[in-house]
Amino acid sequence: NAGVTQTPKFRVLKTGQSMTLLCAQDMNHEYMYWYRQDPGMGLRLIHYSVGEGTTAKGEVPDGYNVSRLKKQNFLLGLESAAPSQTSVYFCASLTDTQYFGPGTRLTVL
Amino acid sequence: GQQVMQIPQYQHVQEGEDFTTYCNSSTTLSNIQWYKQRPGGHPVFLIQLVKSGEVKKQKRLTFQFGEAKKNSSLHITATQTTDVGTYFCAVTYNFNKFYFGSGTKLNVKP
Fold first, then answer.
1. Which of A33, A37, B81, B106 is buried most, with the most CB atoms less than 10 Å from its CB?
2. Could you tell me if B48 lies within 8 Å of chain A, comparing CB atoms?
């Protein structure tokens, strides 16, 4: 039981490049979340999903897209990366509590 | 949008001293969760409070939910160096959509 895993762990992009962050959970959880965390701040919800095939916007969805084609996977896409998207990205899945992945540290130059 | 205020932003204590962090909302909450994040790590769930006036304890940690379900506190008795980290509250207003406080960073001097 690996819990929640995220790939990649680190990534450096140039402005305008695209990339996809993958979150996978093996706990059969319905709810999954993508957050970003900036220095000295709490986590801000980007998008979330209440089940396979469904997604919804969170607090800061602009510049991001998501997909939940399979229950165990939740993908976060950046179509055209901007320096303001430099952050640490956390994925989480939920039963009564949120189980967080280890995070992806993204730098956009 | 919904906001939750968490104070203080930082707390430096001597080992053995107590520590308290507070979360406040202007709107009634459905529930509140508390998380701890060690430097370089990910948030780890501590507790969930659901009922008005609820008090829960975990060893040296005491969690309270206000009677009006608009505020909560986390109190650590006799801090230890292993308590170092940032403590976050996460609240929901409509179930399953979470808003995090900005966190309280705790530093414990041995």
1. A33
2. yes
